[in-house]
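Changelog-adjacent note: as of this version, every example in the card shows the full chain rather than a window. The one below runs 50 residues end to end.
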Amino acid sequence: MEQPKIAEEMQKMAYEPLLPVEKKLIGWSLGLGIALLIVLLVVARLFLKG
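Full-length structure tokens:
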């Protein structure tokens, strides 16, 4: 039996918009990731200066 292709299966799927809680989770994750990158850069500049 042949395996269905991913593209075909995705075309068959119904469109489901993101829930508000999912949007909030994405926003918090991106914000936290950016904030932690900034903290890492600051710490690296302070301790790896010499």
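Structural remarks: The chain has a mean pLDDT of 91.
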